[in-house]
Amino acid sequence: xxxxxxxxxxxxxxxxxxxxxxxxxxxxxxxxxxxxxxxxxxxxxxxxxxxxxxxxxxxxxxxxxxxxxxxxxxxxxxxxxxxxxxxxxxxxxxxxxxxxxxxxxxxxxxxxxxxxxxxxxxxxxxxxxxxxxxxxxxxxxxxxxxxxxxxxxxxxxxxxxxxxxxxxxxxxxxxxxxxxxxxxxxxxxxxxxxxxxxxxxxxxxxxxxxxxxxxxxxxxxxxxxxxxxxxxxxxxxxxxxxxxxxxxxxxxxxxxxxxxxxxxxxxxxxxxxxxxxxxxxxxxxxxxxxxxxxxxxxxxxxxxxxxxxxxxxxxxxxxxxxxxxxxxxxxxxxxxxxxxxxxxxxxxxxxxxxxxxxxxxxxxxxxxxxxxxxxxxxxxxxxxxxxxxxxxxxxxxxx
Length: 399
What we know:
It is elongated and about 70 Å long. The chain has helices at about 35-45, 50-65, 80-90, 160-175, 205-215, 240-245, 260-265, 275-285, 310-315, 345-355, 390-395, and strands spanning about 30, 90, 95-100, 105-110, 120-125, 130-135, 135-140, 155, 195, 230-235, 250-255, 295-300, 325-330. Strand 12, helix 9 and strand 13 form a beta-alpha-beta unit.
């Protein structure tokens, strides 16, 4: 595709999918419940109301601070009470189907959730930190034409249990649960950061994402600071302010273009919330400040969005927004209709951004050899190798 090609991509559906409910007779899973919800189900199971707050706190710590999955190991609860819990509830996290480890140490997990669906989770180790990229939906409704995940149809939203469960699974694999009675040493965390940049659009699954992140941030839970969590959205404008108010995490935006014409193809939600509307919402973001800048993600596509003119337009567009621009070398996938910008082109683009006073790091590609890089995630059961012509046709791109 070139900038002169006609652009006519389908706009995403504005959908709010319903997660799978547990089958009648299934034991209730305690993972993913808010504190209030946990208290309510404990009372419904016979816990005296006067004890419910204390029991909630005890079970919460076992689940999220120490990673315990066996009720019998919760030794500060009475034996009869533990037996009742075991008869009434389960502690269930996604099942790891496969784990791949890249040459650079990146780990990709294919995990199975309720209904037999699968999503991918990626752990990226770096010096002084470790970032977990988690998914919020099975598939995606946004049909971004450069994204492999976008070629998989949306199946459903993940539950809060399935979202926080991805974090728990990764901590299992990293052997990072502290010994009961102790706390994680913040300076030695292997999993120190979370990015909601995996499969799906987090703001189309707001309540479940919010509840899962509240568990992750809880001081008696997994104990990650809100500044260690970044939510990436393609620009679902009505939910942006709500993200600041109800989650309080850092915000990243999949921007990728400097004109509506090009962004309509790359990120079709732009047809509903165009660049001007999106930027107005970002300028009003309640938490935006120099200490909490908005990250603009910008994938570098050869001949599409990588010109010097694009760089100058980008600087003008974001003027007045405390921001940094993450330049992402395009990670190619089978049948992709795009190619990666050259290193020289990316450097020239970055220099213009940097000269305007914005940080413009070029994201180091990680896990590319195991299809774990940005934009490459797609569950194995759905990873059909479509032809380039078929993908271009679905994206509305003429070759």
